[in-house]
Amino acid sequence: MKSVIARILDETQTISPQAIAWRREIHAHPELSNMEYRTSALVAKHLRELGFDEVHEGLAGGTGVIGVLHGASDGPVVGLRMDMDAQAVMEETGLPFASKITSLWGSETVPVMHCCGHDVHTAIGLATASIASRMRDQLCGHILFCFQPAEEGPSPGWTGLHGAQAMMQEKIFQDYLPNAMFT
Known about the structure:
With about 180 residues, the protein is of the alpha/beta class. The protein has 5 helices and 7 strands. It is flat.
């Protein structure tokens, strides 16, 4: 049997082209804070396709997703956080997958772009979920995959908690309170 590290490296090579495709897809279709509907649907669908034990949608004001993956034996809960929102910035890269998206922000129409790396963060989270699901026979404990909306701040008119604070208040997060959290 291969070591865990060797298996992860093999799985990483296998998933890399798909991770690049996800990143480009998410980059071409950015969404502002609390408006990550397309991205959260993509995330939830993928986690379900992987056979995650639990997939919770509509969190943290509507677009947060938490997936729970149980390992083969008991152990700690490890949380992974990925942010999904973009910013009101005009993309001028000329790349084939450049954003041409605009969105309403309050009463103003603004250009939208992933200029902070959240497209990469989400794609890496999807790839990590893929690898972990294929290695669950070697995992102890649980992994909580938290795809968080509104890291850049709340949308106009938003009241109450947003972003990570809102995700941490969700019942599913509290039920699987992580022993360690990584972002």
